Amino acid sequence: MGKYKTTIRDIAKELNITASTVSRALNKHPGISDATRKAVEATAKRLHYRPNHIAAALRSGKSYIIGVLVPSADKSIFPSVIRGIEDEVNKDGYSVIVGQTYENPDREVKVIETLLKTRVDGIVVSLAKGTNAYQHLRRIQAEGIPLVLFDNTVSDLGASIVKTDDFLGAYTATEHLIERGRKRIVHLIGPRTSEIYRERLRGYMLALSKYEIEMDPDLMIDCPSDVQAGQEVVKGLLDRGVTFDAIFSSSDYAALGALQQLKMSGKKVPEEVAIVGFGNAPFTSYLDPAITTVDQNGLQMGQCAARVFLEQINKGEDYIVRKHILQPQLIIRSSSP
Fold first, then answer.
1. Across the chain, how many H-helices and E-strands are there?
2. Domain over 166-296 is classified CATH 3.40.640.10
3. What is the pLDDT of residues 43-62, one digit of tens each?
4. Would the CA dihedral through 304, 310, 315, 320 be positive or negative?
5. Which GO terms describe its molecular function (predicted)?
6. Rounded to whole angstroms, how far apart are CA atoms 282 and 150?
7. Staple 169 to which of 79, 141, 288, 328, CB 3.0 to 4.6 Å?
8. So where are the chain's domains?
9. d(Cα 75, Cα 100) in Å, to the nearest integer?
10. What is the percentage of the chain residues whose pLDDT exceeds 90?
11. Which CATH superfamily is domain 8-51 in?
């Protein structure tokens, strides 16, 4: 037999009060005295009472839970984004459930189905890079649940968006390298199915154009956002004898792989090849040399996404869809002084 779960009625029987009084005390109703509330809380703790959030959501129409969906909770800007969301929504009594897609669109659909079954009050999503169908997101909207997209987003859903100005970040990074005298700048392009990487490519290309530097297709290379891919791309360039004096990577992880391969090949960074990444992942400041990178302000992004959700749920039908574009910051380190 399964372990018995304490109910509100058990607490009421123990204290010789009504179940409704216990419920109001647990929910900190102002009509309940401090003495009664403390007695209920102490008894609930002693009897190992755990509230049934789904049942409570069915009764009240609110679960005070927000679903946050990210590609990976321990990678790139996402730990900071999650913290920013929690910092804001906790003030209003909300808790956060985090789901991970691992950049798999099918998993994204399944996690959202789970969150909807949990009756969350809102969902905040950074799309998987391969997501190109949006029925699961439209279902969220059809059920009247607030939807906020951040970082990797799509514009045609009529949902609020919070993201970094990826174009400006890439333009600034490329311009920085040009101003350091670099003219043969490799760009490691992330998955082009994602708007964020298309915008970073556009920023790179416009910076070259502004400074009248010819665009060389040999230097514009598709590269997944991981360390091994960065290593392989740089090894291929060196093996083919392609000349280059800088690398602008669309991700810090590919930039790390590029740095490792350059060092293994005897190339000096930044003397022979300067490197700039994107994302300001925590490890970038601890490398030798530390990697210059574009900071996406993950904490600010999370806080902003949370405020958008809270505004949307509080205003209901009066809410106006918003698009918040955050300003990136170039963090200059010793890989491109």
1. 12, 12
2. no
3. 989 988 887 665 665 555 67
4. positive
5. DNA-binding transcription factor activity; transcription cis-regulatory region binding
6. 20
7. 328
8. 8-51, 64-163+298-327, 166-296
9. 11
10. 77
11. lambda repressor-like DNA-binding domains (1.10.260.40)
Q: Which CATH number fits domain 64-163+298-327: 3.40.50.2000, 3.40.50.720, 3.90.79.10, 3.40.50.2300?
A: 3.40.50.2300
Domain 8-51 and domain 166-296, same fold? Reply is no
- Is-contact 6 47, C-beta < 8 A? yes
| Tokens read off for 13 | 């029987």
Tokens of 189: 């392009």
pLDDT at 55: 60
Residue 202's closest CA among 229, 220, 181, 218? 220
- In terms of phi and psi (left: phi > 0; alpha: psi -120 to 50; beta: otherwise), the region of 257 is alpha
Using N-to-C axis directions, what is the helix angle for 19-26 and 8-15, rounded to 10°?
Answer: 110
Which two tokens mark 88? 């804001």
pLDDT > 80? residue 210: yes
pLDDT per position as a tens digit, 128-175:
988 989 999 999 999 999 999 999 999 889 999 999 999 999 999 999
CA distance 21 to 286: 56
The pLDDT assigned to 2 comes to 52
- Assign residue 323 a region (left: φ > 0; alpha: ψ between -120 and 50; beta: otherwise): beta
Output the pTM of the full model: 0.81
For the segment 281-323, what is each residue's pLDDT rounded down to a tens digit?
A: 999 999 999 999 999 999 999 999 999 999 998 888 788 899 9
Picking from 262, 263, 215, 245, the residue whose alpha carbon sits closest to that of residue 336 is 245
